[in-house]
Design a protein that fits this description.
Strand content: 25-35%
Number of helices: 8
Largest sheet: 6 strands, mixed
Strand order of the largest sheet: 6-7-8-3-9-10
Order of helices and strands: EEEHEEHEHHHEHEHEEHEE
Helix content: 25-40%
Length: 262
């Protein structure tokens, strides 16, 4: 569905890539890596926000740049890391922005209401976004993504740290609903994730961006342990929680391995 081949992008003097990657319909992929390696940059390349200096990006076997903005908005939804909104819009209107490319009417209103319900923000619809907490705004923005791709199949969702501002009690609810939403519609989900165990629990494949600029793809699960240890420079302890989910915990380094500041 989405392919990048030998893509290189420059931001200022810094080079990112070459990246080669193929993403299939209904696939769930987490992008992981240390701070500053280019996770958000890769997401912007996949969305078409950053044009490659070389290489090519294809969506459904056509250059991504050849798709009109209107058609692309019906197949691709993006949730960026920065979710600031310049105007004090009502939350209901923000969610409805995901339906701008569709004919307006009662059906759209129903979709907005159902998307809000899935993200547990129905009670916030009349509030303006400048009165919402960071976590509430994050859920409203994700509801916008749901509304945008509600009635299509085989689209793709790109998200940059979608639950970073959300309380732990709601994180799993949101991710469960996101994956169920995408699975029913065969949408691919590609997300920058910092929580290793969320990546293992909800995503089938991991894209690892290393400090040297290289990209590595691994299947999620126990067999990813050694690759993750190399990625972060830590040792990981593996166990299964009471629900049977795999959990990886970084082990503390020995005192002799730590920098000495005193």
């Amino acid at each position: 569905m989405l392919t990048i081949h030998d893509v290189v992008t420059f931001l200022g003097q810094r080079r990112f890539g070459p990246y080669t990657l193929r993403i299939r319909s209904a696939e769930t992929i987490a992008i992981l890596g240390p701070n500053g390696v280019g996770k958000s940059t890769l997401l912007n390349i996949l969305s078409g926000n950053y044009q490659p200096s070389s290489g090519h990006i294809l969506f459904n076997d056509r250059p991504l740049s050849s798709w009109s903005t209107d058609i692309l908005s019906k197949n691709r939804a993006v949730l960026s890391q920065s979710q600031n909104i310049a105007f004090a819009l009502a939350a209901e209107l923000v969610i409805g922005l995901g339906r701008l490319s569709r004919p307006q009417g009662a059906v759209n209103d129903q979709i907005v209401a159902r998307a809000a319900s899935m993200l547990d923000v129905s009670h916030l619809l009349e509030r303006t976004v400048d009165t919402l907490s960071g976590g509430e705004l994050a859920r409203v923005q994700l509801a916008r993504v749901f509304a945008q791709l509600w009635d299509v199949q085989d689209g793709f969702i790109l998200m940059d740290e979608p639950i970073a501002a959300v309380d732990p009690g709601l994180q799993d609810l949101i991710l469960e609903n996101l994956m169920r939403f995408a699975r029913i519609r065969r949408h691919a989900v590609i997300a920058v994730v910092h929580d290793l165990n969320h990546a293992l629990r909800y995503f089938s494949r991991l894209i690892l961006l290393h400090a040297d600029g290289s990209l590595e793809c691994v299947e999620s699960g126990l067999k990813a342990k050694h690759a993750l240890e190399r990625l972060y420079g830590v040792r990981l302890s593996c166990l299964h929680d009471e629900q049977g989910d795999l959990v990886m915990l970084p082990l503390r380094k020995n005192a002799t391995d730590m920098p000495q500041f005193f």
